[in-house]
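Quick note —
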Amino acid sequence: MLDLSLTAEQQGQLAEWHAFAEEVIRPVAAEHDRDESTPMEVLEEASRRGLYSLDSWAAGLEDPTGLHWLLANEELFWGCAGIALQLTVSGLALAGLSAAGTPEQLMQCAPECFGSPSDIKLGALAVTEPTGGSDVASLTTTARRDGSDWVLDGHKMFIGNGGIADVHVVVAAVDPDLGHRGQASFVVPKGTAGLVPVRRLSKLGLRAAYTGEFRLESCRIPADHLLGGQDKLDERLDPAGHDEDISGSTTLKALERSRPVVAAQAIGVARAAYEYALAYACERRTFGHPLLEHPPIAELLADMAMDIDAARLLAWRAAWMGATDRDYQAAEGSMSKLKASEMATRVTEKAVQILGGHGYLADHPVEKWYRDAKVFDIYEGTSQIQRMVIARSLPEAESPLPLRRAEFEEGLGCRRGRGGRARFASRWTVPAWSCFTSRRS
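Predicted structure written out below.
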Protein backbone atom coordinates (compact mmCIF):
# COMPACT_ATOMS: atom_id res chain seq x y z
CA MET A 1 0.00 0.00 0.00
CA LEU A 2 1.11 3.54 -0.62
CA ASP A 3 2.83 4.97 2.44
CA LEU A 4 5.03 8.03 2.22
CA SER A 5 5.54 8.38 5.96
CA LEU A 6 9.15 8.39 7.09
CA THR A 7 10.84 5.61 9.02
CA ALA A 8 12.04 6.23 12.56
CA GLU A 9 15.61 6.43 11.26
CA GLN A 10 14.65 8.98 8.58
CA GLN A 11 12.75 11.06 11.12
CA GLY A 12 15.85 11.11 13.33
CA GLN A 13 18.05 12.18 10.44
CA LEU A 14 15.54 14.82 9.44
CA ALA A 15 15.56 16.26 12.96
CA GLU A 16 19.37 16.30 12.95
CA TRP A 17 19.60 18.14 9.64
CA HIS A 18 16.89 20.60 10.62
CA ALA A 19 18.62 21.35 13.92
CA PHE A 20 21.91 21.93 12.11
CA ALA A 21 20.22 24.27 9.63
CA GLU A 22 18.47 26.21 12.38
CA GLU A 23 21.30 26.33 14.94
CA VAL A 24 24.42 26.56 12.77
CA ILE A 25 23.49 27.73 9.27
CA ARG A 26 20.79 30.37 9.79
CA PRO A 27 22.63 32.50 12.40
CA VAL A 28 25.48 33.19 9.92
CA ALA A 29 23.53 33.12 6.64
CA ALA A 30 23.03 36.88 6.27
CA GLU A 31 26.70 37.61 7.02
CA HIS A 32 28.10 35.21 4.45
CA ASP A 33 25.51 36.31 1.88
CA ARG A 34 26.45 39.95 2.39
CA ASP A 35 30.21 39.38 2.37
CA GLU A 36 30.25 36.64 -0.29
CA SER A 37 32.48 34.67 2.08
CA THR A 38 33.00 30.91 2.22
CA PRO A 39 31.52 29.46 5.44
CA MET A 40 34.47 27.31 6.49
CA GLU A 41 33.36 27.34 10.13
CA VAL A 42 30.07 25.73 9.06
CA LEU A 43 31.92 23.02 7.11
CA GLU A 44 34.08 22.34 10.16
CA GLU A 45 31.06 21.99 12.44
CA ALA A 46 29.30 19.81 9.88
CA SER A 47 32.39 17.61 9.72
CA ARG A 48 32.46 17.32 13.52
CA ARG A 49 28.82 16.21 13.47
CA GLY A 50 29.47 13.73 10.67
CA LEU A 51 27.32 15.63 8.18
CA TYR A 52 30.24 16.60 5.91
CA SER A 53 32.00 13.29 5.49
CA LEU A 54 32.44 10.32 3.22
CA ASP A 55 30.46 8.16 5.64
CA SER A 56 27.49 10.51 5.41
CA TRP A 57 27.48 10.31 1.62
CA ALA A 58 27.86 6.54 1.72
CA ALA A 59 24.77 6.35 3.95
CA GLY A 60 22.81 8.14 1.27
CA LEU A 61 23.87 5.62 -1.35
CA GLU A 62 22.71 2.76 0.86
CA ASP A 63 19.20 4.19 1.37
CA PRO A 64 16.78 1.87 -0.50
CA THR A 65 14.07 4.56 -0.66
CA GLY A 66 16.25 7.17 -2.40
CA LEU A 67 15.00 9.84 0.01
CA HIS A 68 18.12 10.30 2.14
CA TRP A 69 19.64 13.15 0.19
CA LEU A 70 16.32 14.70 -0.71
CA LEU A 71 15.46 15.04 2.97
CA ALA A 72 18.93 16.35 3.79
CA ASN A 73 19.02 18.89 0.97
CA GLU A 74 15.55 20.24 1.67
CA GLU A 75 16.49 20.96 5.29
CA LEU A 76 19.94 22.37 4.55
CA PHE A 77 18.66 24.64 1.77
CA TRP A 78 15.82 25.70 4.09
CA GLY A 79 18.64 27.03 6.26
CA CYS A 80 20.56 28.90 3.53
CA ALA A 81 20.97 27.94 -0.10
CA GLY A 82 24.47 29.37 -0.45
CA ILE A 83 25.87 27.68 2.65
CA ALA A 84 24.04 24.45 1.84
CA LEU A 85 25.49 24.41 -1.66
CA GLN A 86 28.97 24.81 -0.21
CA LEU A 87 28.24 21.81 2.03
CA THR A 88 26.96 19.63 -0.80
CA VAL A 89 29.02 20.59 -3.85
CA SER A 90 31.86 18.21 -2.95
CA GLY A 91 29.29 15.46 -3.43
CA LEU A 92 29.16 16.31 -7.14
CA ALA A 93 32.83 15.43 -7.43
CA LEU A 94 32.13 12.21 -5.56
CA ALA A 95 29.26 11.46 -7.95
CA GLY A 96 31.61 11.98 -10.89
CA LEU A 97 34.15 9.65 -9.30
CA SER A 98 31.49 7.03 -8.62
CA ALA A 99 30.04 7.21 -12.13
CA ALA A 100 33.29 7.00 -14.08
CA GLY A 101 36.04 5.73 -11.79
CA THR A 102 37.24 2.30 -10.77
CA PRO A 103 36.73 1.12 -7.17
CA GLU A 104 40.43 1.72 -6.54
CA GLN A 105 40.24 5.28 -7.85
CA LEU A 106 37.15 5.94 -5.76
CA MET A 107 38.84 4.69 -2.59
CA GLN A 108 41.89 6.82 -3.26
CA CYS A 109 40.19 10.09 -4.23
CA ALA A 110 36.90 10.14 -2.31
CA PRO A 111 38.39 10.98 1.12
CA GLU A 112 40.10 14.00 -0.45
CA CYS A 113 36.67 15.47 -1.21
CA PHE A 114 35.85 15.95 2.49
CA GLY A 115 38.89 15.72 4.76
CA SER A 116 38.44 16.02 8.53
CA PRO A 117 37.24 18.70 11.00
CA SER A 118 40.80 19.94 11.42
CA ASP A 119 41.67 19.66 7.73
CA ILE A 120 38.65 20.38 5.51
CA LYS A 121 38.96 19.26 1.89
CA LEU A 122 36.89 20.35 -1.12
CA GLY A 123 35.82 18.60 -4.30
CA ALA A 124 34.73 20.00 -7.67
CA LEU A 125 33.02 18.57 -10.74
CA ALA A 126 34.12 20.63 -13.74
CA VAL A 127 31.86 20.28 -16.76
CA THR A 128 30.54 23.72 -17.74
CA GLU A 129 32.52 26.11 -19.93
CA PRO A 130 32.11 29.85 -20.68
CA THR A 131 30.76 29.10 -24.15
CA GLY A 132 28.38 26.32 -23.19
CA GLY A 133 26.70 24.71 -20.23
CA SER A 134 23.69 22.81 -21.52
CA ASP A 135 25.45 21.61 -24.69
CA VAL A 136 27.64 19.08 -22.90
CA ALA A 137 28.39 17.21 -26.13
CA SER A 138 30.29 20.22 -27.50
CA LEU A 139 32.90 20.69 -24.78
CA THR A 140 36.04 22.47 -26.00
CA THR A 141 38.30 21.36 -23.15
CA THR A 142 40.56 18.68 -24.62
CA ALA A 143 42.70 15.86 -23.31
CA ARG A 144 45.50 14.27 -25.32
CA ARG A 145 47.80 11.40 -24.45
CA ASP A 146 51.51 12.27 -24.29
CA GLY A 147 53.63 9.29 -23.35
CA SER A 148 52.68 8.15 -19.87
CA ASP A 149 50.71 11.35 -19.16
CA TRP A 150 47.55 13.14 -20.21
CA VAL A 151 47.68 16.83 -21.11
CA LEU A 152 44.54 18.93 -20.59
CA ASP A 153 43.78 22.31 -22.14
CA GLY A 154 40.61 24.32 -21.73
CA HIS A 155 38.53 26.77 -19.76
CA LYS A 156 35.95 25.92 -17.08
CA MET A 157 33.39 28.30 -15.54
CA PHE A 158 30.49 28.22 -13.06
CA ILE A 159 32.27 25.43 -11.14
CA GLY A 160 31.55 24.91 -7.44
CA ASN A 161 34.96 25.07 -5.68
CA GLY A 162 36.49 25.55 -9.13
CA GLY A 163 40.18 26.36 -8.92
CA ILE A 164 40.45 25.86 -5.14
CA ALA A 165 39.25 22.25 -4.76
CA ASP A 166 41.58 19.55 -3.54
CA VAL A 167 40.10 17.19 -6.14
CA HIS A 168 38.85 18.42 -9.52
CA VAL A 169 36.94 15.90 -11.64
CA VAL A 170 37.34 17.43 -15.09
CA VAL A 171 35.30 16.31 -18.10
CA ALA A 172 37.22 16.78 -21.35
CA ALA A 173 37.01 15.71 -24.98
CA VAL A 174 39.45 13.05 -26.10
CA ASP A 175 37.87 12.84 -29.56
CA PRO A 176 35.60 15.89 -30.10
CA ASP A 177 34.10 14.38 -33.26
CA LEU A 178 32.42 11.62 -31.21
CA GLY A 179 30.43 13.95 -28.95
CA HIS A 180 29.52 12.36 -25.61
CA ARG A 181 31.25 9.11 -26.54
CA GLY A 182 34.52 10.92 -27.13
CA GLN A 183 34.62 12.43 -23.64
CA ALA A 184 36.33 11.21 -20.50
CA SER A 185 36.74 12.33 -16.89
CA PHE A 186 40.07 13.08 -15.25
CA VAL A 187 41.24 13.78 -11.71
CA VAL A 188 43.22 17.00 -11.41
CA PRO A 189 44.55 17.55 -7.87
CA LYS A 190 44.99 20.96 -6.30
CA GLY A 191 48.34 22.53 -7.11
CA THR A 192 48.84 20.65 -10.38
CA ALA A 193 50.98 22.67 -12.79
CA GLY A 194 48.74 24.17 -15.47
CA LEU A 195 45.65 24.38 -13.24
CA VAL A 196 45.20 28.14 -13.19
CA PRO A 197 42.49 29.72 -10.98
CA VAL A 198 41.00 32.81 -12.64
CA ARG A 199 38.47 34.26 -10.18
CA ARG A 200 35.64 33.73 -7.75
CA LEU A 201 32.39 34.64 -9.50
CA SER A 202 30.15 37.30 -7.91
CA LYS A 203 26.55 36.07 -8.09
CA LEU A 204 22.97 37.24 -7.66
CA GLY A 205 22.26 34.50 -5.12
CA LEU A 206 24.00 31.55 -3.45
CA ARG A 207 26.62 34.11 -2.52
CA ALA A 208 28.13 32.07 0.33
CA ALA A 209 29.05 29.24 -2.05
CA TYR A 210 32.38 29.45 -3.84
CA THR A 211 31.76 29.36 -7.59
CA GLY A 212 34.90 29.68 -9.65
CA GLU A 213 36.46 29.98 -13.07
CA PHE A 214 39.76 28.33 -13.97
CA ARG A 215 41.91 27.42 -16.94
CA LEU A 216 43.80 24.30 -17.88
CA GLU A 217 47.00 25.32 -19.67
CA SER A 218 49.03 22.29 -20.77
CA CYS A 219 47.95 20.71 -17.50
CA ARG A 220 49.88 17.43 -17.24
CA ILE A 221 48.55 14.55 -15.11
CA PRO A 222 49.62 10.88 -14.82
CA ALA A 223 47.83 8.30 -16.97
CA ASP A 224 46.19 6.71 -13.93
CA HIS A 225 44.24 9.95 -13.36
CA LEU A 226 41.96 8.96 -16.24
CA LEU A 227 38.81 7.76 -14.50
CA GLY A 228 37.84 4.24 -15.50
CA GLY A 229 41.18 3.48 -17.07
CA GLN A 230 42.48 3.23 -20.61
CA ASP A 231 40.66 0.02 -21.53
CA LYS A 232 37.28 1.53 -20.72
CA LEU A 233 38.12 4.63 -22.75
CA ASP A 234 39.24 2.53 -25.73
CA GLU A 235 35.94 0.66 -25.60
CA ARG A 236 34.04 3.93 -25.73
CA LEU A 237 36.07 5.21 -28.64
CA ASP A 238 35.78 2.01 -30.68
CA PRO A 239 33.01 2.59 -33.27
CA ALA A 240 32.50 -1.15 -33.72
CA GLY A 241 32.39 -2.10 -30.08
CA HIS A 242 30.07 0.33 -28.34
CA ASP A 243 26.44 -0.18 -27.51
CA GLU A 244 23.77 2.29 -26.49
CA ASP A 245 24.76 2.31 -22.82
CA ILE A 246 28.45 2.88 -23.50
CA SER A 247 27.78 5.63 -26.02
CA GLY A 248 25.66 7.63 -23.62
CA SER A 249 27.27 10.39 -21.58
CA THR A 250 28.28 9.18 -18.11
CA THR A 251 28.13 12.79 -16.95
CA LEU A 252 24.61 13.30 -18.28
CA LYS A 253 23.41 10.09 -16.63
CA ALA A 254 24.85 11.25 -13.31
CA LEU A 255 23.17 14.63 -13.76
CA GLU A 256 19.79 13.05 -14.56
CA ARG A 257 19.94 10.98 -11.38
CA SER A 258 20.95 14.09 -9.40
CA ARG A 259 18.02 16.21 -10.58
CA PRO A 260 15.59 15.08 -7.85
CA VAL A 261 18.18 16.26 -5.33
CA VAL A 262 18.29 19.67 -7.03
CA ALA A 263 14.51 19.67 -6.87
CA ALA A 264 14.73 19.11 -3.11
CA GLN A 265 17.10 22.07 -2.85
CA ALA A 266 14.58 24.32 -4.58
CA ILE A 267 11.82 22.98 -2.35
CA GLY A 268 13.85 23.88 0.74
CA VAL A 269 14.23 27.49 -0.39
CA ALA A 270 10.57 27.73 -1.31
CA ARG A 271 9.48 26.24 2.00
CA ALA A 272 11.58 28.76 3.92
CA ALA A 273 9.93 31.63 2.05
CA TYR A 274 6.45 30.17 2.46
CA GLU A 275 6.82 29.62 6.21
CA TYR A 276 8.15 33.13 6.73
CA ALA A 277 5.40 34.70 4.63
CA LEU A 278 2.76 32.68 6.49
CA ALA A 279 4.09 33.80 9.88
CA TYR A 280 4.18 37.40 8.67
CA ALA A 281 0.62 37.17 7.32
CA CYS A 282 -0.58 35.90 10.70
CA GLU A 283 1.06 38.74 12.62
CA ARG A 284 0.72 41.73 10.28
CA ARG A 285 -2.62 43.52 10.54
CA THR A 286 -4.17 45.79 7.92
CA PHE A 287 -7.68 47.28 7.86
CA GLY A 288 -8.21 45.83 11.32
CA HIS A 289 -7.50 42.20 10.37
CA PRO A 290 -4.46 39.92 9.97
CA LEU A 291 -3.21 39.76 6.40
CA LEU A 292 -4.10 36.08 6.28
CA GLU A 293 -7.79 36.93 6.57
CA HIS A 294 -7.72 38.95 3.35
CA PRO A 295 -8.71 36.60 0.49
CA PRO A 296 -6.02 37.73 -2.00
CA ILE A 297 -3.27 36.96 0.52
CA ALA A 298 -4.88 33.70 1.63
CA GLU A 299 -5.08 32.57 -1.99
CA LEU A 300 -1.39 33.31 -2.54
CA LEU A 301 -0.44 31.24 0.49
CA ALA A 302 -2.75 28.40 -0.55
CA ASP A 303 -1.11 28.25 -3.97
CA MET A 304 2.34 28.32 -2.37
CA ALA A 305 1.55 25.38 -0.07
CA MET A 306 0.01 23.37 -2.90
CA ASP A 307 2.94 23.97 -5.25
CA ILE A 308 5.50 22.93 -2.65
CA ASP A 309 3.74 19.65 -1.90
CA ALA A 310 3.24 18.85 -5.59
CA ALA A 311 6.91 19.45 -6.34
CA ARG A 312 7.96 17.26 -3.41
CA LEU A 313 5.87 14.35 -4.68
CA LEU A 314 7.49 14.53 -8.13
CA ALA A 315 10.95 14.63 -6.55
CA TRP A 316 10.24 11.68 -4.26
CA ARG A 317 8.93 9.61 -7.17
CA ALA A 318 12.04 10.31 -9.25
CA ALA A 319 14.31 9.51 -6.30
CA TRP A 320 12.49 6.22 -5.72
CA MET A 321 12.91 5.27 -9.37
CA GLY A 322 16.64 6.02 -9.22
CA ALA A 323 17.13 4.07 -5.99
CA THR A 324 15.34 1.01 -7.39
CA ASP A 325 17.16 1.12 -10.75
CA ARG A 326 14.05 2.02 -12.76
CA ASP A 327 14.87 3.79 -15.99
CA TYR A 328 13.42 7.26 -16.36
CA GLN A 329 10.89 6.44 -19.06
CA ALA A 330 9.50 9.96 -19.38
CA ALA A 331 12.43 11.98 -18.02
CA GLU A 332 10.99 11.87 -14.51
CA GLY A 333 14.22 13.31 -13.11
CA SER A 334 13.89 16.33 -15.38
CA MET A 335 10.20 16.62 -14.53
CA SER A 336 10.98 16.88 -10.84
CA LYS A 337 13.73 19.44 -11.34
CA LEU A 338 11.68 21.59 -13.72
CA LYS A 339 8.60 21.63 -11.51
CA ALA A 340 10.54 22.46 -8.35
CA SER A 341 12.70 25.10 -10.01
CA GLU A 342 9.86 27.13 -11.43
CA MET A 343 7.81 26.58 -8.28
CA ALA A 344 10.60 28.05 -6.12
CA THR A 345 10.79 31.16 -8.28
CA ARG A 346 7.02 31.65 -8.03
CA VAL A 347 6.80 30.96 -4.31
CA THR A 348 9.66 33.26 -3.32
CA GLU A 349 8.25 36.03 -5.53
CA LYS A 350 4.89 35.65 -3.82
CA ALA A 351 6.58 35.81 -0.43
CA VAL A 352 8.12 39.15 -1.36
CA GLN A 353 4.72 40.32 -2.58
CA ILE A 354 3.01 39.32 0.69
CA LEU A 355 5.51 41.37 2.70
CA GLY A 356 5.06 44.31 0.34
CA GLY A 357 7.65 47.04 0.76
CA HIS A 358 9.20 45.19 3.68
CA GLY A 359 9.82 42.20 1.41
CA TYR A 360 11.97 44.39 -0.82
CA LEU A 361 14.27 45.28 2.07
CA ALA A 362 17.21 43.30 3.40
CA ASP A 363 15.58 43.60 6.83
CA HIS A 364 13.70 40.41 5.99
CA PRO A 365 15.20 37.26 4.41
CA VAL A 366 12.58 36.84 1.68
CA GLU A 367 14.55 39.03 -0.74
CA LYS A 368 17.54 36.71 -0.26
CA TRP A 369 15.42 33.63 -0.89
CA TYR A 370 14.04 35.33 -4.02
CA ARG A 371 17.60 35.89 -5.28
CA ASP A 372 18.67 32.36 -4.36
CA ALA A 373 15.71 30.71 -6.07
CA LYS A 374 16.46 32.00 -9.54
CA VAL A 375 19.49 29.75 -9.96
CA PHE A 376 17.30 26.64 -10.05
CA ASP A 377 15.84 27.76 -13.39
CA ILE A 378 19.38 27.78 -14.75
CA TYR A 379 21.85 25.31 -13.24
CA GLU A 380 21.83 21.52 -13.58
CA GLY A 381 20.04 22.11 -16.90
CA THR A 382 17.94 25.16 -17.72
CA SER A 383 14.15 24.99 -17.69
CA GLN A 384 14.18 25.12 -21.48
CA ILE A 385 16.54 22.15 -21.68
CA GLN A 386 14.42 20.19 -19.19
CA ARG A 387 11.35 20.70 -21.37
CA MET A 388 13.28 19.48 -24.41
CA VAL A 389 14.41 16.36 -22.51
CA ILE A 390 10.88 15.64 -21.33
CA ALA A 391 9.32 16.20 -24.76
CA ARG A 392 11.82 13.91 -26.48
CA SER A 393 11.12 11.11 -24.01
CA LEU A 394 7.33 11.13 -24.34
CA PRO A 395 7.00 8.99 -27.50
CA GLU A 396 9.08 6.25 -25.83
CA ALA A 397 7.25 6.21 -22.50
CA GLU A 398 5.90 2.73 -21.74
CA SER A 399 2.58 3.78 -20.27
CA PRO A 400 0.24 6.80 -20.22
CA LEU A 401 -0.21 6.34 -16.46
CA PRO A 402 0.92 9.32 -14.40
CA LEU A 403 3.43 7.16 -12.52
CA ARG A 404 4.71 5.64 -15.78
CA ARG A 405 5.64 2.25 -14.37
CA ALA A 406 3.21 -0.65 -13.95
CA GLU A 407 5.40 -2.26 -11.29
CA PHE A 408 5.37 0.98 -9.31
CA GLU A 409 1.58 0.99 -9.45
CA GLU A 410 1.34 -2.62 -8.29
CA GLY A 411 3.96 -2.24 -5.59
CA LEU A 412 2.15 0.72 -4.07
CA GLY A 413 -1.21 -1.03 -3.95
CA CYS A 414 -3.11 1.01 -6.51
CA ARG A 415 -6.57 0.00 -7.58
CA ARG A 416 -8.39 0.77 -10.79
CA GLY A 417 -11.13 3.35 -10.84
CA ARG A 418 -13.58 4.39 -13.51
CA GLY A 419 -12.17 4.68 -16.98
CA GLY A 420 -9.16 2.57 -16.12
CA ARG A 421 -7.39 5.28 -14.15
CA ALA A 422 -5.19 4.22 -11.27
CA ARG A 423 -6.32 5.47 -7.89
CA PHE A 424 -4.29 5.18 -4.72
CA ALA A 425 -5.90 3.13 -2.00
CA SER A 426 -4.25 4.93 0.89
CA ARG A 427 -3.27 8.44 1.80
CA TRP A 428 0.00 10.32 1.95
CA THR A 429 1.26 10.87 5.47
CA VAL A 430 3.00 14.24 5.53
CA PRO A 431 6.06 14.58 7.78
CA ALA A 432 5.53 17.01 10.62
CA TRP A 433 7.90 19.89 9.99
CA SER A 434 9.32 21.85 12.91
CA CYS A 435 7.68 25.20 13.53
CA PHE A 436 9.34 28.16 11.90
CA THR A 437 10.30 31.04 14.12
CA SER A 438 11.06 34.25 12.25
CA ARG A 439 14.11 36.20 13.24
CA ARG A 440 13.92 39.84 12.33
CA SER A 441 16.79 42.25 12.58
